[in-house]
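User: Thanks for the earlier help. One more: Transcription factor TFIIIC triple barrel domain-containing protein. Can you show the sequence and predicted structure together?

Assistant: Of course, both are below.
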Amino acid sequence: MDANVTSREHQDREEYVLLDLDSVSESVDIPPNAKYVLTGLNTLNPVLIIDDKLKLVGEYQETIGTCVVFSEEDTPVVHEETGPSEANLFSGTKIIDSSQPPTKQVKPFCQLHKVLKFRIAPDSEIQAGTIEEAK
């Protein structure tokens, strides 16, 4: 029974992968809102197609050491009222200070074990650093 529980926990575990487009971004301008299709994540060479025009081939690389991904979000500045209850009717109340700009809060999101580095597929049609439609 323990073997079944262990294998089920292994199947339910999420795994995060970083998509590394650094080598591609130097030669091709990819719009931030471009549509994409990512296939073959469970193969040795996943394929990423951007805007139905640019085909990229990926290769997994194991990370060395600990690779942690952080999330960043705006949080309002909050003041908490403190003091004796006779002098302060709002003791323990939190007040958002709208005169202060929000601060950035960074939190660990996940730990990575793999990086997926992409390169342009030989059969992609690219000219002069822009994506052209296949003819």
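User: Great, one quick takeaway?

Assistant: Residues 2-131 form one domain.
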